[in-house]
Amino acid sequence: MHYQTESWNSHKPTKSSSSSVITDPLAHIERLASDNAVVIFSMSTCCMCHAIKRLFCGMGVNPTVYELDEDPISGKEIEKALILLMGVSSVPVVFIGGKLVGAMDTVLASHINGTLVPLLKQAGALWL
Amino acid sequence: MASHRIEESALSDFGHIPYAVPHMIHPPTTFTNQEGSAFDFGELEEAIVLQAVNETKQPLYAGRPAATLEMFPSWPMRFHHTIRGSSKSGEESTDSGSAVHTLSSRGEGSRLEPESPVGRKTDSSSDHRVIDQMHHLQLPQQIDMASGSDSPRTGMSQAQPVAKPTSEKRRGAGSNSERLLDAKTLRRLAQNREAAKKSRIRKKVYVQQLESSRIRLSQLEQDLQRARSQGFFVGGGGGAGGNISSGAAIFDMEYTRWLDDDHRHMSEIRTALQAHLSDGDLRVILDGYIAHYDEIFRLKGDAAKSDVFHLITGMWTTPAERCFLWMGGFRPSELIKMLTAQLDPLTEQQLMGIYSLQRSTEQAEEALSQGLEQLQQSLTDTLASGSVNDSMHHMAVALGKLTNLEGFVRQADNLRQQTLHQLHRVLTVRQTARCFLVIGEYYGRLRALSSLWASRPREILIGDDISCQTTTDLQMVQSSQNHFSNF
To answer: Of A61, A82, B73, B249, which is the most buried if we count CB atoms within 10 A?
Structure first.
């Protein structure tokens, strides 16, 4: 599990508006998600995020974690975008292989019905 | 007149031993039950004695079963219409008050006339009047029999030859018999009267208690109806007394209903398996059962919104279930472990599927447990830290953290639901049906264990209680047999 902090800025668009740091948060999220096999948007204080991190680590996966509350610049924007994307809560949100998987309930459901492991293997996050 | 018939059948046995009846009077309760109004045994006794007078006029074995009835003027109402001076000879009167008939035919009825049956019951002075009459009746031998003969038959056999010839003599002054009538009979009649009075009073009190209980019961039922319609579960069902929240009460009620539905589904699956239905039909039944489980998870989700503590502490389950509770319900990996022992004939693919299901549930449980642990740690930090000044702020933060509990319970239920769905996918239709039966039976037994444990005898009870305990044990075991009947 590795946490991304400074490298976020490398993805900032060249044209930046005065109001928002990121013009297109969703695209930003997509870019961040496609960088790694498993990407988790989380918050350091959120216990459900802790649970989801534990789940992937327990499976032997090494997810890339973005702690939104530790990003003073774009954290809030991404959080708002995630709420728009997910509808209910912002974190945790999981991307595997650049594709959106969902929050904890979908991750658990896919793990139980046996679709999570093949997805991870396909994304190159698991070798077994 | 059912009571009349009862009286006949009961008394026909005594047809030939009229004088045995006084001995059978005690206990009086048997007779009081046959009649709505109270039965005065004092009057019975007197009537028997009076009947003896009657017997002198006719042979005892005249084949008149009605004679026995006449000796039992137990229905005082009969006294009413018997005082009409009808002649007795040869008349098969089934009227039990005909003893009075004879009295009236003798002209003694004049003294009975003014007495109403009610009056007879309540007015003891009337009894004295009857006794006065008996004084005049001069029944030496019969009274001897009535006054405590142990062999009524011999008494009767004596009475028989005596009856006829002494019809004239009985009016004679037998000072001996008069004294006997006075001393023993009087005392016994008085005792009977007292007993009859006591039984009347007891019966009245009992009926009053019954009436008040009935009223109270109907009131309780009304309250319960009203409360249920309002969605509250009245009574000690949850064991929480009055401290149960409305959301929790509603859920408890719905859970009880769900349990009843569960029983229904289980028996449906059981009969379907035994009837060897086609896979298609069985699948329909199983889909219904899955939907039944989806229902409870949905209900739990709603309950988690209003009262998460009620769910997570397991107050909605039985104590035994509560002991092994994991995050507000059953632990999916434990369920799988329990099932693998029951589902022996599995294909290789199925075995793999079950094994991977077990592993993934274990991983998911571990993740959720760790998440909950972190929540608890964070909450502890919040509550432990902070000065007195910041207490309100810290409380607000702590409250915010508590809201995460609902999320964990929901994820745990989600895990349970997914586990059941996956089981249905991995196994064949018949295997799934057996599987569901095993699960249902298991929890039924766990619930039964809970109640058995609660009602087990304690060591501190000694002496007389021990015998009661063993019978209770037997009853408990027998009552729980049905839980173990199917597997």
So the answer is: B73
Cβ-Cβ contacts under 8 Å for B353 (sequence gap 6 or more):
A114, B425, B426
Task: Give the Å distances, CA to CA, from B296 to B278, B286, B292.
Answer: 28, 16, 7
Tokens of B338: 């329990």
**Chain A residues within an 8 Å CB radius of B419:** 112
Q: To which residue do tokens 């969902």 refer?
A: A102
| Rounded Cα–Cα distance for residues B107 and B96 (Å) | 19
Task: Tell me the residue length of chain B.
Answer: 487
- Dig out the tokens for B150 from the structure: 């142990």
Nearest by CB to B378, from A47, A105, A111: name it.
Answer: A47
Residues of A in contact with B378 (CB under 8 A): 45, 47
Query: For B24-63, how does the pLDDT look when each residue is reduced to its tens digit (9 = 90+)?
Result: 444 444 444 444 444 555 566 666 666 665 655 554 444 4
Q: Give the chain B residue whose CA is nearest to the CA of A50.
A: B371
A49 class by beta-carbon count within 10 Å (0-12 exposed, 13-18 middle, 19+ buried): buried
DSSP A59-111: HT---EEEEGGG-TTTHHHHHHHHHHHHSS--S-EEEETTEEEESHHHHHHHH
- Mark yes or no for CB contact A112/B415 under 8 Å: yes
**Rounded Cα distance, B140 and B166, in Å:** 9
Rounded alpha-carbon distances, angstroms, from residue B367 to B326, B364, B443: 13, 5, 26
B370/A50 touch (CB, cutoff 8 Å), yes or no:
yes
DSSP B417-477: HHHHHHHHHHS-HHHHHHHHHHHHHHHHHHHHHHHHHHTPPPTT--THHHHHHHHHHHHHH
Please say whether the beta carbons of B416 and A85 come within 8 A.
no
Token code pair at residue B277: 């239905």
Q: What is the pTM of this model?
A: 0.57
CA–CA distance, B75 with B201 (Å, rounded to integer): 18
Query: What is the sign of the dihedral through the CA atoms of B46, B50, B55 and B58?
Result: negative
Please state whether beta strands A99-102 and A93-96 pair in parallel, antiparallel, or not at all (unpaired): antiparallel
User: Tokens 């592993």 label which residue?
Assistant: B359
Chain B contacts to A (CB-CB under 8 A): 353, 356-357, 360-361, 363-364, 366-368, 370-372, 374-375, 378, 401, 404, 407-408, 410-411, 414-415, 418-419, 421-422, 425
**Alpha carbons B8 and A12: distance in angstroms, whole number:** 109
Q: Report the first-to-last Cα separation within chain B, whole angstroms.
A: 54
Using the predicted structure, report yes or no on whether residue B235 has a pLDDT greater than 60: no
Tell me the residue type at B417.
Q
Half-sphere exposure (CA, 13 Å, Cβ side) for B264?
8
pLDDT per residue over B290-299, tens digit each? 999 999 999 9
Phi and psi at residue A94, to the nearest 5°: -115, 135
ipTM of the complex: 0.87
